Amino acid sequence: MAARTLDQWVMFLTDRMDQTRTRVDFLRGYTNGNAPLPEMGPNLRKSWAAFQKKALANSGALIVDTLVERIKPNGILVGDDPQSELALQARRIWRDNRMDVAFKDAARDACTVGVGYLLETVGTDGRAVITREKPEQFYAEPDPTRPWKSIGALKVWRNVSEGLDHMIMWVDGLSVAYARSSYDQQDQLIRRVSGKWDLVSVAPYEGDVPVVILENKDRMGEFEAHVGLIDRINTGILYRLVTMAMQTYRQRALKTTSADGAGLPDEDENGDQIDYQTIFEPGPGALWELPPGVEIWESQTVDLTPMLSAVKDDWRELAGETHTPLSAMLPDAANQSASGAEQPMQQLVFKAEDRIARFKPAMDVCIVKALQIEGADLGDQTVEIKFEPPASISMTEKYAAAAQAKAAGEALETIQENILGYSPEQIAQDKQRRAEAQLAMQLGLMGQHDQSEPEQQGV
């Protein structure tokens, strides 16, 4: 197949971005309070739409955040020495680019819409710049054999003050900049990325496309397969709110019990219209006198318990299908038995371990690219991003497990890495401090021995 021209790349990537934008906006809505509103009929008024929004539960964000909080990088290892010059340089790159935040945002994108992006460029000082890019304004075509790498990428943004759209495309070793007006010939705001773009500049770059892709399992959001269940939860909440709004106040009516069914007259003895709304105005001290054969009927409220129970059952089903602990979704489930909470927690840990295994190669490549941008020579050395163990346990449980592992004969460094969650630099620092403490203790013992010599000679 012949290589694409720049115009063909523009047409291909912008069309792909337009195709994915609808899905990205749809899934993002389940995490930022803009999920589809439960429908109740055509011709909805604005006031009804505002009422519907009160029924939206941000369940997608709960599912994503509960998982992402357990995916925590805690160190970088270059080669075998955590204190080597390259390791220190890699940690400086991580710190200067606020990668703790950038990675977490990219991982949250991956768990929400299926993919997250990290863009690597060169700063004005010649150092590597790593930024997280929103899928709403970024698209990268993945390499079929290595899904964490890209064969072509596109970034689009709008400058409202200038009335211009800007686009940068990275393909075939070229960084190409484009621009266009934000409005079409009918002075309407352009909604699609594809269209006519004007070439601004072309600059070469070395190596692969400077984009790292965090791809989630099956390239899907964590809740994407369960949006029907989430919509059912939102609809159930809406029904309950409608029922509560309609029955907040009891309805009253005057009921005729006399045989002739004459009821109350419409006019008084002077022929004037009688305003019963004023006469029977409710109040704490109101006392009404009813004519014979007339009594007051009052409606009864509906028991909402079945509706509440049904929604809770849907929450439990959603928690089970997404491997999310129920306590994260229903606060009243926090007091469930330890045995009942253990299995969902294990499933969440297994899911977090799977996502770490998927994101880890991409993050390793990310740091390798950043070091190469700054001219570092890795040689045969490998770069590895370390992650904390995703199991969330207390410090007491950690050290209890560490004591058991020590009794079983495991090395201290292995315990610190696999159980205590130490980073490589923390392990090296602790090892140095223990050596210093041991040396100080030996020097102290030697000092005590020297002081005791004259006394022994005097005796």
Describe this structure in words.
The longest helix has 36 residues, at 338-373. By secondary structure, the protein is of the alpha+beta class. The strands form four sheets. The protein has a five-stranded antiparallel β-sheet with strand order 4-5-6-7-8, with helices on one face. It has a three-stranded antiparallel β-sheet with strand order 3-2-9. The chain is flat. The chain contains twelve helices and twelve strands.
In short:
This protein is of the alpha+beta class and 459 residues long. It has helices at 6-29, 46-53, 59-68, 85-96, 99-113, 227-246, 276-279, 305-322, 338-373, 395-407, 412-418, 424-458; strands spanning 73-78, 115-122, 128-133, 138-142, 150-159, 164-171, 174-181, 198-204, 211-215, 252-256, 294-298, 383-387. A hairpin with a 2-residue loop joins strand 6 (164-171) and strand 7.
